[in-house]
Amino acid sequence: MKKSFFKFMLSFAVTAFVVSCSGDDNGSGGSSCSDGIQNGDETGVDCGGSCTPCADAVVELSGEVTEDTDLDASKEYKLTAAYIVKAGASLTIPAGTVIKASGGTAAFIGVERGAQIFINGTAGNPVVMTSDAAEPAPGDWGGLVIAGDAPTNKGVDVTTEVGDLTYGGATADDDSGSITYLRVEYTGATFSNDKEFNGVSLFGVGSGTTFEHVQSYNGGDDGIEFFGGTVSGNYLVSIGSGDDSIDFADGWTGNGSYWYIAGGAKAGIEGSNNGDNGDATPVTTTTLSNITVVGPVTEGALFFKEGGGNFTIDNFYASDIDLGVRVTAGDAPAGVRIEAGDLAITNIQFADAAETFSATNYEGANQSFYTEGIATGAGNGANSPDWAAGWTIGLENSETISENLAGVVTGDVSLSASIEYLLTGSFIVKEGGSLTIPAGTVIKASGGTAAFIGIERGAQIFINGTAEAPVVMTSSSETPAPGDWGGLVIAGDAPTNKGVDVTTEVGDLTYGGATADDDSGSITYLRVEYTGATFSNDKEFNGVSLFGVGSATTFEYVQSYNGGDDGIEFFGGTVSGNYLVSIGSGDDSIDFADGWTGNGSNWYIAGGAKAGIEGSNNGDNGDATPVTTTTLSNITVVGPVTEGALFFKEGGGNFTITNFYTSGVDLGVRVTDTDTAAAARIENGDLDINPIQFAAPAMGFLATDYTGLNLSFYTEGDNTGAGNGAAQPDWATGWTTGF
């Protein structure tokens, strides 16, 4: 059986515990309850028996632990000096134990190399090491220092920076015990500017040690620091550190996941190799995942320092910072490692960025060491993660206002309507991934041709807007204009007459295959604004571009507003488009080509610069197959237009159009006189419009400029077009703009 051993002082002074009893001294053997003497039926001094209750004595912790020792959660512990667990001994601290410390640098808990500590807290009952001051402050006491026998690049049998413990050896799986659900508060007592305690310091601690669910709160120096060793740290929280929040160095080769960091004075994470020799071995090597850093910070969300090391980091969420990754300009070993690809950060997301924000201050050639993406960080972005509930303090569920969108999505990702998203570069949903955008989400874009959202073939997008709360993708400019950003580009596996495995005109996505019912997701109640960024006269983004998108995809209630090129364009594929609006396009309003075989109904078009609808087969070969074939119904085109309400172009195709309403146009159906493939189809009866109405025609109006024999391809008649003639249709109420 373990024995409890302490070098402690039990204080039984009357000044510490005074219990009043009504009983008087009844003579010999009686209890006075107030005479400072244990007498009568008392079980303690003036307490117990008829003087109950007895108060537990305060237990002072100091000195050395030389045998296996258990603390007792029911007792009150005071740490007033160094309390060292010696080699061969162990210290066990049960759930709910509270240790209150005083004494500055003199007061700390140390675990020697070869000793063990078992901190057995729970989420409901963490172990707490805190300050004994009436008004606690950072630096009130030292902290927890653990020394192990695992390798470091500082050498073997070296001395800890604080606590004078020996550490470092060759036992990678060294076991210093188990630490779970521990909170340390107001640590970081200072010897000098270069010598301070951290909340928890792990020197050469081995991988046989468990270190999970640990928080440092309001420490005077670093929150948690790994000095070499191989131990991993998971579910760590550092709040309010006076220096770096979590720090690792000296050849640490452990890993880490689920770190939540906020309010640190300097770097969120400082990762280095060796302060004396950036090339020292073993090199700091780690894989980190699910990291949140909430600023402001003064030295970056990550400071890659003193040679850095080999870091692989994924799902990194940084909020309210001005610098993502810091690298000192004169740190040659760190620069060499970045150029060699030894620092790789994927899915880093910058939220609520400061006005002076920069992703990195590194100026070397390799600027691709980080890839932006959607990140959840430690679980809830900038908000407190669920796993931190109950045992931590000082975390705020502050609402994130804005987040950057850039990089790639490789899994299933959902945005939040409560966050304003800033699109500053390409944002690609990769094959096998999905992006879900809920009703009411707003995405603001800047960056011209660099900024677009792309959905790869084999990926999916789900835009779940409503009439009352559409999803809006727009410009972030204070004075928005057409062409401020790219647009939405979707690639599918359905057939086109451009071939198989071809490349999208913009976005460099691969599309086209044999899957007619390919499913790229569902898009409902989406409005895109100020799209159409231009590469050249022949290469421009549209509002929404659908390349080889399949019939299993839903595409309904979509508007393009003030786009620089076409509003909405179908490049082959089989997807249908219903309840579409295009207003103010800089080229054609709605365009389809390349063997599109979908259908469309309820299209409202106004204010386009060129054709209301441009329908073609193939710009290189008007007879290419599959031939563009569609049935359109309930169409309104409001002019003026410069290339007709319908431009039947480049072979046209097989079009059946009913209930076609035009207003204010000077030309109904345009056909280029040199387009022999288009003319052949008209003569064959492949273009059939019945009825079409020409309301309020412009001066010089022509129903068609086609000069062939078959002029009966259209039949005039009154109709309602998209619902209300030239007026806004009822189905467009609430979610559209520009009428």
Automatic annotation (TrEMBL):
Which keywords does the record carry? Signal
InterPro entries given for it? Answer: PbH1 (IPR006626), Pectin_lyase_fold/virulence (IPR011050)
Which interval of the chain is the signal sequence?
A: 1-16
Q: Does the keyword Membrane apply?
A: no
Q: Which residues cross the membrane?
A: none
Record keywords: Signal included? yes
Domain of life assignment: Bacteria
Q: What is this protein called?
A: Lipoprotein
- Native source species: Flagellimonas taeanensis
